[in-house]
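seq as requested:
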Amino acid sequence: MAAALLAGRVRDCLRGGLVPRVPVGRWLSLHIEGTGSLYSARGCVRHRCHAGTTGHGPTRKGAWFGRLGRFGRSLSNVADAHGSSEWPYGVTLVTADARGAGTMANVFVELHGHEVSSGKLEIPTLEFLRDSIEECVVTSPRDIGELQFITVSHDDTGEGSGWLLERIAVHDRHSDTHFHFACNCWLGRSDSGGSSGPTSLQLSPSLVISPGDEIGGELSGTQPGAVADSSGGSGLAGVGGDGGDGGGGDGGTGGDVFVPATGVTIGDSLTASAQAASAAALVSVMHDEPLTLRHSAMALPVPAPRGQQQRKGRCARQHGHAGDDAYVVDVSKGACLVGVADGVGHWRHKGIESGQFSVGLLNAAWEAFLDHHSSGNDDDTHSNAAVDASDLLAVAFEQVRQQGVQGSSTACLLTLESSTGLLRAANIGDSGFMVVRDVYREAEVVFRSVQQEHYFGYPFQLGHHSSSDCPSEALTTNVSVLPGDLIVVGTDGLFDNVTERGIIDTLLAEKSPWTAAARVAESAFWASMEKTSDTPYSLTATEEYGMPFYGGKRDDITVVIAEVVTADHIDIADKGTRQRQRQRQQ
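struct tokens:
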């Protein structure tokens, strides 16, 4: 059964245009039914952390910090396999739930005391899987005293060696003290198109629990190094807490926004230098001039196989579609709306046109957006306050279902509040967005959404079928944007084929917001047709399937590039455009 499932998923990759290379060997493991645990040949306990996990396997909804009793009992079983030592330390490593997050590289931890360190200690695990918790015991050859900080690293070997480490816990078994370290950073090359990082990081503890401390059941609230999101939605998609109704973890509830302890720019999270911006996103800050967007958009259909009719598209300023993709942009009501949707093409095998669902979903969201602002004509404050993107998504989904539209689609909706610069986002599936600051200087990605998937190649989606996901499962985010920021919104046809760096390089070469979307979409198109290059999708497929892949993913591509500007800037630009048009007519 497992072999048939793997073969089917590999066939899906081949249909997407990926080219397999020589298979590579994988470690063998034994899956214990009912426990959710995998036991590797080297005696290290591992847990797969999926939504709804029960039993002794920890879940991702805040349980990792709080269930220290289970943590200690699990390590005591593993310690027997390693023998006793005078200075044993229990180590737990949490790999993030994001594409390409796992690694097959050899991982090392070095424990640092006041004056001495343990030296590099290898973690006895052959592979760190996406969305998993690894528990083991390492022994220091010397007494380091009280733990001050740690260094975590890997040797950058093997296919897909990049590793998105979420957090680490160290249990000093001699003093029975627990040290928790937040990371949320890529070690090495990003395997999902995000920004890469160094292969070695130093981390200081964000939480220390001594034997006499009372921790109660599960820890909740804001831990050191975290920024609370008053809306309940997670500002760092994929790191969930127990409070609020927003997205986080495995598409469940969100609570805290964890910020990396280092200054490394990473994909799927906030950078350390963006902490002030993310905190400001939670507070209404009045700008001297209202903010708005000037944008360009482009949608390209996937080339049809030989002998089949080519599907066409339409690109206009406010609305557009191509194949199963669609987009909508509205900047005329004080608040701004940007949305993209990607219909699931497999419905065509059942005679259903998913492009109608994606177009209908965005049209319904646009109508709800207009209704919200038209109802506030007598109240300027109301009319300039952006409706929450998650509310728009829920209203739009209910409307298309009532209309009987069939199919399913991913979706990413963003609203910008002109008076405060607060960008609200609701993202379900593998479409997404990123915010780039100082693009023509330092070009820092201050935020990037994460793909929301049940597993690789099966994104969350809204549809007419009974197994459809719900709008409440969307990952919600609040980000404070500034004049000059560029917001890049796209379907998976963009982010599966072009890295963050590739998008930024294209923006630097183009420099005009009016044609930027066309150039970025063009670069994604040519990358999707490649058969020998590495792309974010091929790197992730290599890791997920255990055999190397090259090439792009052939898919519909939709891109919206929106620059944050002040309203008076738009007025001046429009006036200059009208003058140039009159001069040409004369």
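Residues 298 and 518 are 5 Å apart (CA to CA).
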